[in-house]
Amino acid sequence: MKSDLPGSGSVPPLARAVLLVDDEPQALKWFARSYGDEFDVRTAASVRQALELLDRQGHEVAVLLTDYRMPERDGVALLAEVRERHPLVSRLLMSAYADKDVAMAAVNLGHVGRILEKPLDEPVTRRALREALAACQQRLREQTLLQRRDEALRETLGFLAHEVGTPLATVSGYLHAMRERQQAPLCGNTDLVCLTQRRPGEIGAMLDAALRRTDYAQSLVATFVRTARDAYHADGSASELASDLVRSVREGYPFDGDEAGWLVCDLLQDFVLPGQRDLLYLVLCTVVKNALLALHSAPPAEPRIRIVVAGTPDRAVIEISDNGPGIAPEVLARLTREPVTTRSASGGSGMGLVFCQRVMASVGGTVEVRSPPAGGTAVRLHFGATDTEQHHEVSR
């Protein structure tokens, strides 16, 4: 995604250079002239020069080819040090027949991947360099993938901790309120517990809200567990239709009171979601939550959240819009690029939309946030080209 999981940075360029180390100047010139037509050749005349070059340009070097016999330190010593300091670089050794025993020892110690006998045979050397280059680039791709998976899991874990903390704080608040309403047992019967209500049905409403938020928190934890598991499998979780994702949010999000009635869904053209469904579910829940918070902060006469699903062969979008107060221009300019929140006093961290942007980037998409001066906010999740499906009705 890009890595399979969230990560907004571009894929770094793969190392492509071949570094030859030999203390004979003519040998360096001949090698650069002979193989420069296919490879990006760098040269060094000693172990010291080679290590200095690798310290400066190590991210560009994919293959190290060194002669065994050199002054000061030999090629095997160089290979051993490179193995420790630059483990992804493919290591090859040139040696004459007389150095065969030393060369074999280098192989046995793992310092070198292959030995080329001097004088170099051009077809054999080209093939060896191509294979070593490909092996290094494969290791770089795997390392990048693992780093991004680790980064994505760390970010998802931080996001999950925040998202789970919100409903659990609400549950805790309801339970404390119920405890405050607990009365002394009646008639000396210690098996009876009575709760006072300030309005009819208040206690039942608290229990229902607490249960909804508990279920939602558990679903988020389950989502993270699946994401952590699927992060190490190339296929990830199964794809599904955008309409199914919207339906899952309608049915799984812990709406309060009549909030569910604020949500209107329009399916213009369905499409198959790319990437991991579980992460996209967290994205959509985050955007809906932000819309609900905006509507509660300055309630309009008729609160409304509209989700539109529109897919074409060239472009697919899920748009979530609300008729709340909108977003100040100075805040809007920073959204999706850095953590920014207007709700820090109530526990907001600003990581929600940053997380959404990273998830969308991981599937080749983007997040666009619009908020006109007249008010209201529209968040568009752009997925790029996807497979469209026939119209599927989404319940309103």
Automatic annotation (TrEMBL):
<dbReference type="InterPro" id="IPR050351">
    <property type="entry name" value="BphY/WalK/GraS-like"/>
</dbReference>
<dbReference type="Pfam" id="PF02518">
    <property type="entry name" value="HATPase_c"/>
</dbReference>
<dbReference type="InterPro" id="IPR003594">
    <property type="entry name" value="HATPase_dom"/>
</dbReference>
<dbReference type="GO" id="GO:0005524">
    <property type="term" value="F:ATP binding"/>
</dbReference>
<dbReference type="GO" id="GO:0030295">
    <property type="term" value="F:protein kinase activator activity"/>
</dbReference>
<keyword id="KW-0547">Nucleotide-binding</keyword>
<feature type="modified residue" description="4-aspartylphosphate">
    <location>
        <position position="67"/>
    </location>
</feature>
<dbReference type="InterPro" id="IPR036890">
    <property type="entry name" value="HATPase_C_sf"/>
</dbReference>
<keyword id="KW-0418">Kinase</keyword>
<dbReference type="GO" id="GO:0007234">
    <property type="term" value="P:osmosensory signaling via phosphorelay pathway"/>
</dbReference>
<dbReference type="GO" id="GO:0000156">
    <property type="term" value="F:phosphorelay response regulator activity"/>
</dbReference>
<dbReference type="InterPro" id="IPR001789">
    <property type="entry name" value="Sig_transdc_resp-reg_receiver"/>
</dbReference>
<keyword id="KW-0067">ATP-binding</keyword>
<dbReference type="InterPro" id="IPR004358">
    <property type="entry name" value="Sig_transdc_His_kin-like_C"/>
</dbReference>
<dbReference type="Pfam" id="PF00072">
    <property type="entry name" value="Response_reg"/>
</dbReference>
<dbReference type="InterPro" id="IPR036097">
    <property type="entry name" value="HisK_dim/P_sf"/>
</dbReference>
<feature type="domain" description="Histidine kinase">
    <location>
        <begin position="159"/>
        <end position="387"/>
    </location>
</feature>
<dbReference type="InterPro" id="IPR005467">
    <property type="entry name" value="His_kinase_dom"/>
</dbReference>
<dbReference type="GO" id="GO:0000155">
    <property type="term" value="F:phosphorelay sensor kinase activity"/>
</dbReference>
<keyword id="KW-0902">Two-component regulatory system</keyword>
<protein>
    <recommendedName>
        <fullName>histidine kinase</fullName>
        <ecNumber>2.7.13.3</ecNumber>
    </recommendedName>
</protein>
<feature type="domain" description="Response regulatory">
    <location>
        <begin position="17"/>
        <end position="133"/>
    </location>
</feature>
<keyword id="KW-0808">Transferase</keyword>
<dbReference type="InterPro" id="IPR011006">
    <property type="entry name" value="CheY-like_superfamily"/>
</dbReference>
<keyword id="KW-0597">Phosphoprotein</keyword>
<dbReference type="InterPro" id="IPR003661">
    <property type="entry name" value="HisK_dim/P_dom"/>
</dbReference>
